Amino acid sequence: MREADLARDAGKWGEAAELYAAFLDLKPEADGIWIQRGNMLKEAGRHNEALAAYARAIALKPDNADAFLMKGHLHKVMGDLEACEVAYRQAFVLNSEDRAAFRELRALGASLDADTFAAAAGNLVARGEQVLMDLSDIFKFLKDHATVSGIQRVQLHLSESIIRAGGNTFRLSYLDEVTRAYYTIAAETVLDLSAALRRQPVDHGEIRGIIARAEQGAEVYVPRAGDVVFVAGAFWMLPDSANVYQSLKRAGVRIAVYIYDIIPITHPEFCAPELVARFSRCLFHFIRLADVIFTISEFSAVELKRYCAERGIPLAPVRPVKLAHQLDSGECAAGRASSAVKRLLDKPFVLFVSTIEARKNHNYLFQIWQKLLEKYPSDHVPELVFVGRPGWRVKDLMGSFASRNHLDGKLHILSNVSDADLSLLYRAAQFSAFPSFVEGWGLPIGESLAFGTPCIASTTSSMPEVGGDLVDYVDPYNVTGGLALVEELLFTPGALEARRARIASEFRPVIWPQVADEMRARFAEVLTRTAPYDGADERPEELIAQLREGAQISFAESALEPRIDRMRELAEADFVFDDKWVWDEVQVKWLTGNSADLAFRLEGPAPAPGLVLPVSLELQFRTPGKEGNRLVFRSGATELGRLEVRAGAFQVVCGVPADADGVIRLSLAVEGLMPRDDRLQPILLAVRALGVASPVEAQPLIAMEQRIRLVRPKLDK
After folding, report:
1. Which of 90, 188, 295, 391 reaches 20 to 30 Å from 685, CA-CA?
2. DSSP conformational letter for 625
3. How many Cα atoms are found within 13 Å in the side-chain-facing hemisphere of 588?
4. Taking a C-beta distance cutoff of 8 angstroms, is the pair 617, 555 a contact?
């Protein structure tokens, strides 16, 4: 054995294989050494002998996941990717905590269906139901930015407070964009990220290192019935994940979502068109899938329920869990402030914390300050400080700032400000302002009050919920009224002092541990199957998409679809597909693998017996494999037709009968060796569009397909 190990370490594969064989002559029952011999034979290029060695190991210990994993690696080297997938799948079932098997499966484009996960879960140690807090958008955001915006800040504070409260119910997780599966991560990840973000200055390299270590140590999540996946952040950041949630729900996992607002739907004029399209589509996904919906304010809850009630859209229970007022900033000594902040701390200034975009109404304060500078000597007018990154469609606004020389130097714009610097600014400001047109909550209002600093805010939407009667409210469209209030605060003796004194005596800030306690209580209700989630689980057939007769869905043209009702239909059509499909940048759906089932119901009655439903698919093919590929269309055991694959776009029409449950099921299967991309994923075909006609007699449609061949190239527009 020692000689064999030395030969292995020296890279003498053949010699090591023979030495391990000599050991096995003495101890043939050593299954682990059969695996070692197989590994050496694989490296030596003696593949058939290696397969035989792995087979001996499996015969000795059929539940040895490592033997199946090594067998999968060998099949991959041999180019037999189908056998490779079978071996990796068995390795995953036997040891689902081994990330290697899972990553290999997903790299191969393998679909891990509910049966596979159920088999894997059967080998896990029993545990109670869990809540997975989804931090996907934090990971995605912090890879590119050193500071967080409002939504990511909420998630970090909330998850940190839940972790510090203890217990085994909540686990942190993220949805991986490549493998399209959930991974759980160590609780220390959030604590480390929060600590790094509070330091001054923030080290972006440290933040990315924390995320990289978390991903390297992550464990694949094996869903179990009764668990809850809680999407607490920007759910529209991963638009093609709806089918992942659908698959989890079919496995008995419940879905919860935190909705901050529905402003892209109710006020689309304030949002980029691509955000409106993506947000509304993903919102409809969650409205359909969620077992419980949390909102960050009463206003957001009322708006969501009103919107859905007006359109007859069924909605899960909606429960507001309001946000905190606190900015937990860590160290904030003035001596450690950044140079930009230090220059402001010895001057009087007014603070506006927000991304610079049209909805936040920065122009309101800009106009007021112009009027102040026209009316008063410059040294009587305080500095105006905007803290936030420039956002969507602010080129003209930023141009206005520049044309006035940033109010002759009175206007300061600070981006990527750390929490420590921000806390110094809140404390030192004469007052803060937040004249936004519409909000789901309004974090800067509460943060200002928590630092004892007076605030001016809009009287609209959720903002009075945050500040109560301790805030001065303005009409965000009335600059004249805002100017009068600003003048009162700046030039009326004692006005600011009186407000500070009242805040100090009356304000009772809600802190993040209180929000976390309320959220934990809400989930305790969910997990114990009492209110708010007190209904029966949806049956799998209730998760089937519903399409109207005559529907024409163009996925390839949906990325900028401006019509909200049309986006609802697109969102429903997304559920025709399962989690084997990935979307490209224009929402075209690409199949990862060589087979898939499309399923939907017609709104209203199902097609009568003897009738079929013409289903139109616009398909996009990549270059087929060297030996060629054929695409076979089936309904149940009946073959509807087949198509020789050629690169390009084609229109296909299939006559599909409804099954006994009234569901239209169309199966696609690729014959021949699949071409693979640079990640070894088998990707050959995409669906660009889907259409549904009126039911027709079965025989005439089949005859028509045979004669006219409704499989034709689709010309470019």
Report:
1. 90
2. P
3. 17
4. no
User: Which residues form the domain of 472?
Assistant: 334-509
Amino acid residing at 518:
E
Please check whether residues 390 and 302 belong to one and the same domain. Answer: no
User: 203 with 196: CB under 8 angstroms?
Assistant: yes
**Cα first-last separation, the chain:** 69
617-652 tens-digit pLDDT? 999 999 998 889 999 999 998 898 888 899 998 888
DSSP result, 170-206: EEEEEE-TTT-SEEEE-THHHHHHHHHHHSSS--HHH
- Of the listed ranges 64-68, 107-111, 451-455, 513-517, the one predicted with least confidence: 107-111
- What is the SS3 assignment for 713? strand
Contact (Cβ atoms closer than 8 angstroms) between residue 161 and residue 88: no
SS3 285: helix
Is residue 525, in this structure, part of any structural domain at all?
Answer: no
Q: Do residues 645 and 628 touch, judged by C-beta distance below 8 A? A: yes
Instruction: Identify whether the C-beta of residue 405 lies closer than 8 Å to the C-beta of residue 325.
Output: no
Count the Cβ atoms, other than its own, within 10 Å of residue 141: 19
Cα(581)–Cα(647) distance, integer angstroms: 19
Helix or strand holding residue 701 (H, E): helix 698-708
Considering the entire predicted model, what is its pTM? 0.85
Q: Residue 679 and residue 41: Cα distance in Å, rounded? A: 26
Distance CA 249, CA 353 (A): 39
657 within 8 A of 635, measured Cβ to Cβ: yes
* Residue 518 located in a structural domain: no
The verdict on 269 and 367 lying in the same domain is no
pLDDT at residue 111, rounded to an integer? 62
How far is residue 699 from each of residues 98, 542, 679, measured CA to CA in Å? Answer: 52, 31, 44
pLDDT attached to residue 115? 67
Integer Cα distance of 709 and 690 in angstroms = 18
The b-or-e profile of 60-99 (16+ CB within 10 A means b, else e) is: beeebbbbbbbbbbbbbeeeebebbbbbbbbbbbbbbebb
Residue 279 lies in a domain: yes
Q: Which helix (H) or strand (E) holds 651?
A: strand 648-656
Looking at 76, 92, 121, the residue that finishes a domain is: 121
Count of beta carbons in the 10 Å neighbourhood of residue 250: 17
The token duo for 101 is: 């098997």
C-beta of residue 674 within 8 angstroms of C-beta of residue 684: yes
698 and 654, same domain (yes or no): yes
SS3 662: coil
Residues 590-612, mean pLDDT to the nearest whole number: 90
Write the pLDDT tens digit of every residue in 211-266: 999 988 888 888 888 899 999 999 998 878 888 899 888 888 999 999 999 999 99
Kindly tell me the sign of the dihedral angle through the C-alpha atoms of 13, 16, 22, 26: negative
DSSP 110-151: ----HHHHHHHHTTSPP----EEEE-HHHHHHHTT-SS--HH
Are residue 155 and residue 111 in the same domain, yes or no? no
Task: Give the C-alpha separation, 176 to 394, whole Å.
Answer: 33
Instruction: Yes or no: say if 716 and 710 are a contact pair by the CB < 8 Å rule.
Output: no
385, β-bridge pairs: 351, 412
How far is it, in rounded angstroms, from Cα 228 to Cα 244?
14
Strand partners, 686: 590, 620
Domain limit, last residue, from 486, 509, 532: 509
DSSP label at 674?
P
Specify whether the CB–CB gap between 598 and 659 falls below 8 A.
Answer: no
Asked, for residue 126, whether it belongs to a domain, the answer is no
Check if the beta carbon of residue 91 is closer than 8 Å to that of residue 75: no
User: In a 3-state reduction of DSSP, which class is residue 338?
Assistant: coil
Rounded alpha-carbon distances, angstroms, from residue 112 to 16, 81, 118, 638, 661? 37, 16, 10, 25, 25
For residue 553, the 8-state DSSP code is E
Give Cα 36 to chain centroid, integer Å.
Answer: 41
Pairing of strands 349-353, 383-387: parallel
